[in-house]
Amino acid sequence: MTPDSVRPKNSRSPGRRPGGPDTRGEILKAARESFAGRGFTATSIRAVAREAGVDAALVHHYFDSKDELFIESMALPIDPRQVAAAILDGPRDELGRRIVTVFLGVWESPDGQQRMKAILRSVVTSDEVARLMREGITKMIIDPVAKMIDAPDAKLRVTLVASHLIGMALCRYLVELEPLASASPAALITQMAPALQTYLTN
Questions:
Q1: DSSP of 30-76, one letter per residue?
Q2: Interval 19-62: pLDDT, tens
Q3: What is the Cα–Cα distance from 35 to 29, expressed in whole angstroms?
Q4: Per-domain residue ranges for the chain?
Q5: Where does the record place the HTH tetR-type domain (predicted)?
Q6: What percentage of the chain's residues is helix, strand, coil (to nearest 5)?
C-alpha cells in the first residue's frame, strides 16, 4: 500500500473526489457501515465507493479485494485467508493439530488476544457483528477447509470444530475457567487435537 497522500493514476471520474489525507479512513468507515447494513455477501466495492464518495478504482488502490476490505474494516488481528492456508498446508490426518495450533497462536499473542476478546464479546452481544463474522469466516476459512475434507457433511464437521474452539476461547480467555485458563498451549494442543481430528475425519 502507498501513503494516503499518493493518488492513484487515472482513478478520478466525474462526480467523485480524488484521494485525500484521510481517504483510506473514510473508505473503511463506509465499508464498516455497508457490511453492517448489508452483510458481507451483499456488500460490493462499488457500494462502498459510492458511500465514501470516491471512485471504485480508488478503493482498489487501497484494498486488493472485498476480503481485504472486510479484514481491515473489522480490525481483525489476523488474515483469515492466511489462517486457511496454514491449516490446509499439510497432511489430512494432522488437520486437527494444525487447526488448534493456529487458533492458539492467534489468541496467545498479547495484541491478538486483546483484539480477539473484543471481537468475541461483540459477536455474542451484537447480531450484526455475529452475522458479519459468520459470513466472512465461512467464505474465507470454513468453506476452504470443508473442501479439503471432501465429505457429504464436511461443512457440519468444520462448524463442529469451530464450536469447540470458540467454546474453549470463551472459557479460557473471557470466563477464565480453571484449570483451562492456566493450562499451557502445548497441553491444550495435545488434548484438543485428537478431538478435532475426530470431528473432521472419523
A1: HHHHHHHHH-TTT--HHHHHHHHTS-HHHHHHH-SSHHHHHHHHTT-
A2: 455 888 889 888 878 876 776 777 889 988 998 899 889 988 98
A3: 10
A4: 1-73, 80-201
A5: 21-81
A6: 70, 0, 30
Written as nine digits, the cell of 153 is 457433511
Quick: pLDDT tens for 152-190. 999 999 999 999 999 999 999 989 999 999 999 999 999
Q: Determine whether domain 80-201 maps to CATH 1.10.357.10.
A: yes
* Model pLDDT, residue 3: 31
DSSP 178: T
Instruction: Give the helix/strand (H/E) hosting 28.
Output: helix 23-38
Grid cell in block for residue 68: 481485504
* Of 4 and 126, more confident: 126
CATH topology of domain 1-73: Arc Repressor Mutant, subunit A (1.10.10)
Q: What is the pTM of this model?
A: 0.69
Q: Which helix (H) or strand (E) holds 131?
A: helix 127-137
Q: Give the pLDDT score at 70.
A: 78
